[in-house]
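Feature request, filed as a ticket because there's no other form

It would be nice if the structure record came with a short human-readable summary line next to the tokens. Right now we just get the raw output. Example of a typical job, pasted below so the devs can see what we mean:
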Amino acid sequence: MNRLKKVLSPLFVACMLVMAVDYASYAATGSSLLLGRSNSTPDLTTVTRTKSGPALSVRTKTKKNAPFVVNGRGRVANLNADMLDGLHASSLGSRAIRFELPSDDPASQISEDLPFQPGTYLITYNALINTSAATAGCFVRVSDAVPYRAQAFAPTDGDGDVYLSGADIIVVDSSSDVRLVCTAVGPFNVNLQSNSSVKSSVNALRLSSVTTQVLP
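Raw output as currently delivered:
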């Protein structure tokens, strides 16, 4: 009998502790918190930690599992996120860049360096070229990759001027050398012009993604 009492006494104490914890939960929320079940209450549920540190830890079986499931679209105040889909805030949204090009001395080829950060860009340019050649052209060169991007060639007018524009999508990495190159057809010099009325420039819009569709 004494041995039975020794076994039952700790068991009774453990049961009382479990009941006390559940009772405390019931007293605080109005009902017990059931794990693995759906819990609902008309009032706000608050978890407060009396010491410094996180108040709640939610762990999933693997890192691929979502820690929460929500059905609301409202903004949560003071909820900070470091990254979204692997991107920092500085990489999100549209970012436009404009390079205004200076006038150059005549040369057989003009090559303007364009300091891009890594990313994918929709690039456009407008260039006023003067040359003695009958035809001049410009293109965007990304390192030594061919074909060159945004190629545009056109005949000059009676004064040797030609206004060229082109557009294309380019992909830039940390080692890319991006340049706008303008040249004349034949052994002639060209010079890039930019003044108060005409601004030769390169414009770029950073893109988050590009989808290619092949039309029939």
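Something like this underneath would help us a lot:
Confidence is low (pLDDT under 50) at residues 2-21.
The helical segments are 2-29.
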